Amino acid sequence: MATMAEISAAINLIDAKKQNLHKSFLHLQSQSPSSFNLPFNWSDLDSYFTTLHTSLLSKFNLLQTLPPPSDPLTIPARPELKSFCQNSDGLGLTRFIALAPDQQSILSELPDAFRYAPDAPAMVLDATVSFYSPEFEGTELRLFRSGCLIMLEALVHVKPDVTIELQDKAAEMAVQWNQVRVSSPGPVKAKEQNTLGFLLLVGAYGLVVRFSIDDVIDCFLVVAGNRHTIDLCRRIIPASNINDVIQKLIDRDMHVTAVNFSIELEKTDKFPPVGLLEERKLRSMMVIEETRRTVKDLHVCNAVMMKEISTLKSIIECVDENHLQSESPMPTMAEISAAINQIEFKKQNLHKSFLHLQSQSPSSFNLPLNWPDLDSYFTTLNSSLQSKFNLLQTLPPSSDPLTVPARPELKSFCQNSDGLGLNRFIALAPDRLLILSELPDAYRYAPDAPAMVLHAMVSFYSPELKGAELLSFRSGCSIMLDGLVRVKPDIKIELKDKAMEMAVQWNQIRVSSPGYVIAKEQEALGFLLLAGAYGLVDRFSIDEIIDCFLVVAKRRQAVDLCRRIIPPNNRNDVIQKLIDEDMHVTAVNFSIELEKTDEFPPVGLLEERKLRSMMVIEETRRNVKDLHVCVISELESSVI
């Protein structure tokens, strides 16, 4: 543990380190090409260090005010907590915690507050007697129990001396809690809260040895996703049984949680994270493939696949959070080539399934797609992947595989600031998506990429262009703006104001002008990309921006663009509006990609929309004469 003098010396070094960083920054700036704008400036870094210095100094001053015998990690308790403890008022303390908005702050203050109690363990035990009290119900019960959990958790941290008599009394209570926990039905959240209460009671009063270790470990499986769990496991499970906890998580198919335990509890030699995640990933892929081949019930198939997709997303998040990318096995060139070669085989299987579906459909029902469309899609996909793979093979071994070098034509247009020429080149190119991945590199060669792109956008509503030519030109504009959104360049104030004027005009025209669906989608997408590329989202009503997303929600860029330009606290609004507009399937895609499945469970949304379709079909069958015309739209809405 660092001494006060060492902490003070470290804080005093911040200014010196900031000066050294400033010199390095100036050197980096002097060595950078004049056409390249750094994504940050010194004033931002200087402000960050000043804020950091002030915060650390404030916390250090607080540390110095603590009395010498205090644990330097203990935060002084507020007067109310001290008063409850001095008076041994455990129930009052529980209610105070239950109603407090800052329960985590209270948790860190309780160790200090407990020092003022004549007998803190006895006070807490007396209060927790009401954990299963019939006097409380619903919200009141949940709040009271949350207060009990905070008190017990703080007692686990303190590790107080507990008399034999009190320990026996706590053991009797723990046995009762365990029996109620096992036997009583209830929602998942209630079961988790009950189980966590039992574990904290056992940990706070040193009762682990009085229960079967298997029973205690099984309790950890119930609450494994709770924030307390890993630290609690470290504090109360004997070191010789830690491996058993992780192994049971794996046996219960909780590989991602097992990886978190393995890393936090330093058991990666025994349970290598990447190996566990790779094992679970392969199982998910096998389940998905098997389900697609053998399960006929669409609802069951959807439920299974959504569950496995959610697991795969959890694996990706786990890799990101624990920085396991460098350890994850990257596919070799041979594996990528083999996967591309599988496309033709999979297309043949799909063709068989399509013919089977066609043969089983009623003669009055026309499928909303035909095989030539699917065949064309697979051919295009194969060509695109083959093109990217060939490009990947040309990269030198040391290249970053995520950076695609720009082709000479793109560099030339950018070097000459020829935005209109670049736009025409993109509009006529057969591989626009590949060009999109090259634009970030190409923009580095432009003296002022944002100005070049904005100049090219002037013709977005040009009366000189019509029909297919206008659509192609606008698709070029969208690709250029999309590339700029990904780069996130520094925009001068004057250029941002100019872009704002253009965005206002585009929005007014978009809202007021009639047009067919593709044109309306293209205009809405252009407006969103312009607002995102030049940092203008906060200059418009967020409802207006979200309404634009409803227009383009089914486009390939929509989810990624939403992630890039919509503030996190407004993403739920986007999904809710999609649901309100009866776009449940699209809402599910947004929910999964934006990691909002807790608030918007995919299977629930799809089930809701399916039931609505079935009701409409039934109502139509009873009341409408032209059955085919009226039912077809609902069938299309139900197909996922």
What does this structure look like?
With 640 residues, the protein is mainly α. Helices cover 71% and strands 0% of the residues. It is built from 30 helices and no strands. The protein has helices spanning 4-31, 42-65, 79-86, 90-99, 103-114, 120-128, 138-158, 164-183, 188-204, 213-222, 229-236, 242-251, 255-264, 273-294, 298-321, 333-360, 371-394, 408-415, 419-428, 432-443, 449-457, 467-487, 493-512, 517-533, 542-552, 558-565, 571-580, 584-593, 602-623, 627-638. α9 packs across α10, α10 packs across α12 (242-251) and α21 runs antiparallel to α22 (467-487). The longest helix has 28 residues, at 4-31.
In short, what is this structure?
This protein is 71% helix and 0% strand. It has 30 helices and no strands.
Q: How is this fold's topology laid out?
A:
Elements: H1 4-31, H2 42-65, H3 79-86, H4 90-99, H5 103-114, H6 120-128, H7 138-158, H8 164-183, H9 188-204, H10 213-222, H11 229-236, H12 242-251, H13 255-264, H14 273-294, H15 298-321, H16 333-360, H17 371-394, H18 408-415, H19 419-428, H20 432-443, H21 449-457, H22 467-487, H23 493-512, H24 517-533, H25 542-552, H26 558-565, H27 571-580, H28 584-593, H29 602-623, H30 627-638
Helix pairs in contact: 1-2, 3-4, 4-7, 5-7, 6-7, 7-9, 8-9, 9-10, 9-11, 10-12, 12-13, 13-14, 14-15, 16-17, 18-19, 19-22, 20-22, 21-22, 22-24, 23-24, 24-25, 24-26, 25-27, 27-28, 28-29, 29-30
